[in-house]
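Dear Dr. H.,

I hope your travels went smoothly. While you were away I took the liberty of generating a structure for the chain from your last submission, since the lab meeting agenda had it listed for discussion. I wanted you to have the full record in hand beforehand rather than looking at slides cold. The sequence, exactly as received, is reproduced here:
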Amino acid sequence: MTETTVEQHPPAEATGGGFIDPVPMEEDPAQLFAGDSGTLDAAVRRVLVRLLQRRFLVAARNRSQWRTLLENQQVIESRLHDLFVHLVVDHDRGIAYKKQVRSAELDVPILLKDDPYSRAETLVLVHLRTVFQRERGAGEASVRVDVEEVEQTVLTFFDPDDKNLAARQTEIRNAVRRLEKEGLIEEESEGRYRVTPLVEIVLSNERLVELREWLRRQNEEDQR
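The corresponding predicted structure, in token form, is as follows:
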């Protein structure tokens, strides 16, 4: 853990009837900007900001920031705890992310707002998680899907009598784009995506089972 402290300048000393002018605060080498009262190095602050800005910090994509996080994990955790936010570092997957602290005993102001997935996004996520689980279980190191395959699978969960197929397809494509933006999939070539381990964090195995059961009941009701 690396911390710096603001350097204190000595009092001005008399010299030959005059005074030595103090170094302006803006030129203090221990500060990053005028009036800076922070104690973290610039690199550590950047990791802290990234954790607050983004949903995940992935080691494979940000090796320098990942190293900084591990070297300064205790102080970064402390800063997040001040905001009632947990830091989760998954060393096996090389992923770090934050979680909102929630407590029935403590009045906790909510900093991290829930941004629920739409129906189409949930259906795409379930498909990705299912494929990821199946392929990893079969020993595959990397899991890939084609957008046409995703689209055709997800369309089976919509009302078959819905005549607005183009609108449903647009919903699904938009869902794919959102999940790509969040890092759950990465486009390797046009229309072909690699599913990342983030999908396991966003959708746990227990939640996957619940959603599969919900979808099964929905299908049974639609067929009645």
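Two observations you may find useful: The two ends are 62 Å apart (CA to CA). Residues 87 and 98 are 5 Å apart (CA to CA).

With kind regards,
E. W.
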